[in-house]
Amino acid sequence: MPIVFSHSRGTEPAIDVPAIGLNLFVRLPPEASGGTYCFIETVNAPGAGPPRHRHPQAEIFRVIEGRYLYEVDGRRFIAEVGDVVSIPGGTPHAFRNVTDAPARQYILIAPALDAAGFFTELAAVMRDGIPDKAALNAFGAKWEVDFLGPPLSHTDGPTD
């Protein structure tokens, strides 16, 4: 696995996706690992999170600030500061910030995703809010993401 030197100083530009309350920073782009993985930081607004979805990449999340409700393959649980959650590629999942302040996570994605391209394009697709299913599915087909349902709601709770 070829790794090249990289130094993220936290000055990378934010990618904002207001429709899902997301600010995202690419801390290690795919080319730094020869496409093996990428590393991003996300800031999720209170009550916010992505729609339920799945994709071929595995993800490893580490909660840095706040609390999240996760749903992984139908199982719901709370993840707090310091918790690490690994989600195998192809597994349906979603999460939501369950605090009244912004929450933050680091996410390692393997194999690497062009996170800057993906989230910039997602922001454009969602510029007027969450788009209709056809537009979301067209975007998803390009990026190999299946959108499976709405974001987790405030009435969803842990199952274990």
Characterise this structure.
A six-stranded antiparallel beta sheet has the order 1-2-3-10-5-8, covered by helices on one side. Strands 7-6-9 form a three-stranded antiparallel beta sheet, with no helix packed on it. The protein has one domain: Jelly Rolls. The longest helix is centred in the last third of the chain and has 11 residues, at 115-125. Helix content is 14%, strand content 40%. By secondary structure, the chain is mostly beta strands.
Looking across the biggest beta sheet, what order are the strands in? 1-2-3-10-5-8
Number of domains: 1
- State the CATH architecture: Sandwich
Topology order in helix (H) and strand (E) letters: EEEEEEEEEEHHE
Question: What's the quick description here?
Answer:
With 160 residues, this protein is mainly β.
